[in-house]
TrEMBL record, chain A:
GO terms for molecular function: branched-chain amino acid transmembrane transporter activity. The keyword Metal-binding does not apply. GO terms for cellular component: plasma membrane. CDD domains: TM_PBP1_LivM_like (cd06581). InterPro entries: ABC_transp_permease, LivM-like. It comes from Natrarchaeobius chitinivorans. It is a multi-pass membrane protein. It is found in: Cell membrane. It holds the Pfam family BPD_transp_2. Keywords: Cell membrane, Membrane, Transmembrane, Transmembrane helix. The chain crosses the membrane at residues 31-48, 60-79, 85-106, 113-133, 139-157, 202-219, 250-269, 289-312, 324-341. This is Branched-chain amino acid ABC transporter permease. Its main location: membrane.
UniProtKB/TrEMBL annotation, chain B:
Residues 75-421 form the Leucine-binding protein domain. The lineage of its organism: Archaea, Methanobacteriati, Methanobacteriota, Stenosarchaea group, Halobacteria. It comes from Natrarchaeobius chitinivorans. SUPFAM superfamilies: Periplasmic binding protein-like I (SSF53822). Keywords: Signal. This is ABC transporter substrate-binding protein. InterPro entries: BCAA_transport (IPR051010), Leu-bd (IPR028081), Peripla_BP_I (IPR028082).
């Protein structure tokens, strides 16, 4: 294989740049990870500070927030896109992870890594508990029971658990300690790193983002993930083959919940706040919109969806006059894209790319 | 871009220009500026000599200081959608009027010595605004945008106490000064207090002190009272303050009933109230919930013999209630028909611009912009820790009367305006929902630093 590559290198440049090479490379696991690394390395700079692209009005803290919501959407998509289970209660994991991370920093210690670990562990437990109940139901009943459980948690946090959750005011006063006792996340990075990534917080968020991409990609490429997809296509057939469908669904639910909880904990670290909004059903709806907008069942689609959604919420919202209609504009964009391209933005990009490619191939 | 970007007509547009300007500067100087933020103190001394003579003080960069260029950004952030919007819209108008007066003179700027009417410290003032929607997460995102992209030096506005409390740590973390408005809950200048956050408006305790000083005269001495309150920090801190202070006046609390936030059906609370049969109801609520509550009490026939006290009264409550709120007693931060010269000056300027009578929300934000700018002028710099220190001993006396911040909890000691709701026909006639009953002096409405909520305040650091 390496000889072959070397030979191609010596042969012609055209050989490495050929469509065949591209087709081979783009489906490798390593390619997805490299793409994710390149993306996060340039993302904040391109979005907020690069000469031309930042004219769109992006800014660094939004770049960070987008990566965090992307983690949420990727985790959600593992359940919806990969396994075909539509949950309307994922805010419980997002908010649950956020509250758990906030509580550990308030009452124990505010090391960001500890917060991530506790937030994720809590959501895994929560997912195990809710999964046992919800996964007995199918399709729309599953969506409804997850919605109901999410709202149950919301009401618990609003009133009965107020001494713990802070009720309507949420949890404030979250103090972050240096990560591993070494450096505060708010510290600026030196030199070119500062220009690219601004501070250590971005590095942490970017690292989690890449790890989540790598993990989900591993699942997608593995035989295990193949069974998820088989369940999505035809649950009954999978059970006829002799596989325990419930167990696979449960595993998908756990993984999805865990990733979303990880994202929620990151959000607490970013905003130093955990509030009821994160548990509310609208949050569950927003992640559905992001995922569908970006492309259900794709790896990077949910990221695209998060970018568009939060760009409208965070930038268009601030435009003079038209700004207050951002939600209406987003709804229009959403409807137009989903109507024209049922596979979302990612599907749209793929379609455009393949059209360009075939026109190039036709006229060499 | 130079001269054209200085008008304040489209805040957001000019904001992004100035931000990019700064970012290019950061890019050009590599990370020198950023390293400076970390306080490594390697003597890079940037921030000086930026060519317009303002950067002569050599403070290390902190927050959004130093300012690049000759325009300083201010921010307003409050509710333009949702149930709190009536006050938010007033605030935004008051804010824009204040910026106009700072740059071009007019209004109270002409009557306030530290201000010139030609910008602040030779900087032209530009601004950005954001809609909080009364929601904590949205507000955090918006304020981060205003700080991060638009480089605001300070911001004011807001109604919800929950939002205010979620934003206070951001002011502290980013070293950008926040002057709160209307937000009433105790913890804002109590356990949640921050060095970079100041509350010029009343706290629940300030209102309760003022009510304790006036209610016995208005409603009698030996009074049985009942409380219905919203079950979260705004309601609870008002409930606690009212219980303590009214009982101190010899009033007798005969019961309490909580109502969940967002609940509009008051029937079980009204049943409790009817059973208790008090002389006075202390009803801590706001917005449409207050309107619903009062109209339901009237339908149930329990409101006739009971005087209703709503500790905090403002447009967002009075507008939906309309004539139903006639006779309701409560407190406000200011009253447009106070009758003093400065209030009249403000009312005239506001009516010229917007053709309606301003409420407390409009004036309060206007006042915040002015007294912050005066503190900057006195300090001679926008350097945030210096301005914070200036504000901590700042006293001013504009249309709200004698105001002074205190260092212990950043709560202003201030006059309180006890008001009463007027009938629908009077509303039409005067253009205001409230008549002024009594002005309570700062001495009578203040409380000591060792009393809750102030006692729980542990101030965070300056730099």
């Amino acid at each position: 294989m390496s000889e072959e590559t070397a030979q191609q290198l010596t042969d012609t440049d055209a050989a490495i740049l050929s469509w065949e090479t591209w087709d081979r490379v783009k489906h490798t696991e390593r390619f997805a990870i490299v793409a994710a690394v390149v993306f996060v390395a340039l993302w904040s700079w391109l979005f907020a500070r690069a000469p031309i692209t930042s004219e769109l009005g992006g800014y660094h803290s939004l770049a960070t927030t987008i990566l965090i919501w992307s983690v949420f959407a990727i985790g959600f998509n593992l359940l919806l896109g990969q396994t075909g289970l539509l949950s309307f209660g994922h805010a419980m994991f997002w908010g649950g992870g956020g509250y758990a991370a906030a509580l550990v920093s308030l009452h124990v210690y505010g090391d960001p890594v500890l917060m991530l670990v506790v937030g994720t562990t809590f959501t895994l437990l929560l997912a195990a508990l809710t999964g046992v109940i919800a996964l007995r139901l199918h399709a729309v009943y599953f969506a409804i029971i997850t919605l109901a459980m999410g709202q149950l948690l919301y009401y618990l946090a609003t009133s009965p658990l107020r001494p713990i959750t802070g009720g309507r005011n949420g949890l404030t006063g979250i103090q972050l300690e240096p990560i591993f006792g070494l450096v505060y996340l708010g510290m600026p990075l030196p030199g070119i790193f500062g220009t690219l990534w601004v501070n250590y917080e971005y590095l942490l968020v970017a690292t989690v983002f890449v790890l989540v991409i790598a993990f989900v990609n591993r699942i997608r490429k593995s035989p295990y993930g193949l069974i998820f997809r088989a369940i999505r296509e035809n649950e009954q057939r999978v059970s006829f083959v002799g596989l325990n469908v419930w167990r696979y669904k449960f595993a998908a639910f756990l993984m999805s919940g865990g990733i979303v909880g990880l994202g929620g904990s990151l959000m607490t670290i970013e905003s130093q706040f955990a509030g009821l909004g994160s548990l509310y059903w609208i949050t569950s709806g927003e992640v559905v919109i992001m995922t569908v907008l970006g492309g259900v069942g794709t790896l990077f689609g949910p990221v695209l969806g998060a970018v568009i959604f939060l760009y409208f919420e965070g930038v268009v919202d601030g435009f003079p006059i038209v700004g207050r209609y951002w939600l209406l504009m987003l709804a229009t964009v959403f409807t137009a894209i989903v109507w024209k391209y049922p596979d979302g933005l990612w599907g749209m990009l793929k379609l455009i790319a393949s059209r360009i490619r075939s026109s190039v191939e036709d006229n060499p | 871009m130079g001269n054209e970007s200085h008008t304040q007509e489209n805040g957001a547009g000019t904001a992004s220009n100035s931000r990019r300007h700064v970012l290019k500067a950061i890019g050009a100087s590599g990370a020198v500026a950023l390293a400076g933020c970390a306080g490594e103190g390697n003597g890079n001394g940037n921030g000086t000599g930026n060519g317009n003579g303002n950067g002569a003080d050599d403070h290390a960069p902190i927050g959004n200081y130093p300012i690049e260029g000759d325009t300083a950004m201010y921010g307003w952030h409050g509710p333009l959608s949702g149930i709190l919007a009536p006050d938010g819209e007033e605030q935004e108008r008051g804010f824009e009027l204040a910026i106009d007066h700072l740059n071009n003179g007019g209004g109270l700027v002409d009557h306030y010595d530290p201000l010139s009417g030609d910008g602040v410290l030779d900087y032209e003032i530009d601004y950005v605004t954001g809609d909080s929607a009364g929601d904590e997460e949205t507000s955090i995102d918006n304020v981060e945008r205003m700080i991060d992209r638009d480089n605001i030096q300070f911001w004011t506005g807001g109604v919800s106490s929950g939002v205010c409390q979620a934003l206070q740590p951001i002011a502290q973390r980013e070293r950008v000064i926040q002057l709160t408005s209307i937000s009433h809950a105790g913890p804002i200048t109590g356990e949640n207090c921050e060095r970079y956050s100041f509350r010029p408006s009343m706290s629940a305790r300030t209102s309760a002190e003022a009510l304790a000083a006036t209610l016995p005269d208005l409603l009698g001495d030996d009074v049985d009272f009942f409380q219905i309150y919203l079950d979260y920090s705004y309601g609870i801190s008002n409930r606690d303050s009212m219980t303590e202070l009214m009982e101190g006046q010899g009033w007798n609390e005969i019961g309490q009933s909580a109502i969940a936030f967002g609940e509009s059906d008051h029937s079980s609370q009204i049943a409790d109230l009817d059973e208790a049969d008090p002389d006075v109801l202390v009803f801590t609520t706001f917005g449409t919930a207050m309107a619903d509550g009062i109209s339901q009490m009237q339908e149930a026939g329990v409101a006739e013999d009971i005087d209703i006290v709503v500790p905090l009264l403002s447009a967002f409550s009075m507008e939906p209630a309309g004539g139903d709120a006639e006779g309701v007693i409560g407190t406000a931060n200011w009253h447009p028909l106070r009758g003093d010269e400065l209030s009249e000056t403000f009312v005239d300027a506001y009516m010229d611009e917007y053709d309606e009578l301003p409420g407390q929300a409009a004036y309060e934000v206007y006042d915040n912009v002015l007294h912050y700018s005066a503190a900057v002028e006195n300090a001679g710099t926008f350097h945030p820790p210096t301005v914070v220190r200036e504000l901590e001993e700042f006293e001013w006396n504009l249309a709200m009367g004698e105001m002074a911040y205190r260092e212990c909890d950043h709560q202003a000691s201030r006059p309180v305006y006890v008001c009463r709701g007027v009938s629908e026909s009077e509303q039409q006639e005067t253009g205001t929902y409230l008549e002024l009953v009594e002005e309570v002096s700062p001495e009578d409405s203040s409380y000591d630093c060792d009393i809750e909520p102030a006692a729980s305040c542990e101030m965070s650091e300056y730099e």
